[in-house]
């Protein structure tokens, strides 16, 4: 823990951490030592981890990278945080991200942007950018993240590490500061699929305090690591590999597919025609839920309250105006619009119907294939400021949001380095609850 605290100090220039409290970390590490001495250790006891600042923590401030929650101390730990603490993992602090997890470049944090350890001009990806940068720079061996529409898979790809988004409902959402509740999923960013498999088992499980939490038997996600991939069938959505995709990204993905073929897997072409509607559907659904979730920040119950106001209405207006940054405000407005009387049927209801069709298309595809292999993004990490137009930023989520809408698990893994010096990623998607299979496939390549 002390060694990692030193690394975190040396890596401060990345701005990956928002809150570090060495005395708390050392206290947890000493507790881990005691457990090991008493023979009560789990395989994770004493291993450092850091949490995206979307998870609430008792000992570290929880801000969602927003001014709205500056300095906020939660009275409880998120279930995911508590489960990993119970397994003996040592918390190194809280990680920067996009404000309320809204973004793809970690340029939307109220506490400044996060650097990409590969290239000072490149974004680390978002919204779990602090998690990805910290792991890639070796400031922490593994970190939690959240993926609502790609926020684990995309930063993992941009920083050359492995990202694991489990099936929606498998990890608890209790204590995850809500963005879009029907999509928000906790997951991991680590150095390898093996590391993610080790930690995932202690992170998921039924939580009676989360009504969407699924009750599944405990599972050893490492059980298939090292086995052959022979006989597995991998589908490739050909239209995703066409024109819009950087040619070097395509070549790197093809090289991985060739590897799987040589190892005895079968590679087949698939079509996902509904998935191309993913971006508009996602931004209607996610903004609608965000506008509802963020209504709790009213200056009364949590967080920021304006210093001067005339009456309660003015207090709420000023508090929200001062507390929220531009991206949450934009989404609250879009969400309020699509939910309002007269537009609800045309936008929100229509989006829900198309969402169902996208999910059905995936489920039908998974009757024919074990997994889908596809790009994470159309290119590598972009330069700071290069994706500032909100519409182009939203459109860049085209490969990650369809799986989110269907609640599917996904792994993003590094598969090459572009001639621009930045890492290239590939994602593997699977049917609900096939995390072990995806980690197996990723591990085979790694
Ligand atoms: N980039 C997407 C968005 O801005 C995804 C965010 C996420 O997964 N948290 O909404």
From TrEMBL:
<dbReference type="GO" id="GO:0030956">
    <property type="term" value="C:glutamyl-tRNA(Gln) amidotransferase complex"/>
</dbReference>
<keyword id="KW-0067">ATP-binding</keyword>
<feature type="active site" description="Charge relay system">
    <location>
        <position position="52"/>
    </location>
</feature>
<keyword id="KW-0547">Nucleotide-binding</keyword>
<keyword id="KW-0436">Ligase</keyword>
<dbReference type="GO" id="GO:0005524">
    <property type="term" value="F:ATP binding"/>
</dbReference>
<dbReference type="InterPro" id="IPR020556">
    <property type="entry name" value="Amidase_CS"/>
</dbReference>
<dbReference type="InterPro" id="IPR023631">
    <property type="entry name" value="Amidase_dom"/>
</dbReference>
<dbReference type="GO" id="GO:0050567">
    <property type="term" value="F:glutaminyl-tRNA synthase (glutamine-hydrolyzing) activity"/>
</dbReference>
<feature type="active site" description="Acyl-ester intermediate">
    <location>
        <position position="151"/>
    </location>
</feature>
<dbReference type="Pfam" id="PF01425">
    <property type="entry name" value="Amidase"/>
</dbReference>
<feature type="active site" description="Charge relay system">
    <location>
        <position position="127"/>
    </location>
</feature>
<feature type="domain" description="Amidase">
    <location>
        <begin position="1"/>
        <end position="439"/>
    </location>
</feature>
<comment type="similarity">
    <text>Belongs to the amidase family. GatA subfamily.</text>
</comment>
<dbReference type="GO" id="GO:0006412">
    <property type="term" value="P:translation"/>
</dbReference>
<dbReference type="InterPro" id="IPR036928">
    <property type="entry name" value="AS_sf"/>
</dbReference>
<protein>
    <recommendedName>
        <fullName>Glutamyl-tRNA(Gln) amidotransferase subunit A</fullName>
        <ecNumber>6.3.5.7</ecNumber>
    </recommendedName>
</protein>
<comment type="function">
    <text>Allows the formation of correctly charged Gln-tRNA(Gln) through the transamidation of misacylated Glu-tRNA(Gln) in organisms which lack glutaminyl-tRNA synthetase. The reaction takes place in the presence of glutamine and ATP through an activated gamma-phospho-Glu-tRNA(Gln).</text>
</comment>
<keyword id="KW-0648">Protein biosynthesis</keyword>
<comment type="subunit">
    <text>Heterotrimer of A, B and C subunits.</text>
</comment>
<dbReference type="InterPro" id="IPR000120">
    <property type="entry name" value="Amidase"/>
</dbReference>
<dbReference type="InterPro" id="IPR004412">
    <property type="entry name" value="GatA"/>
</dbReference>
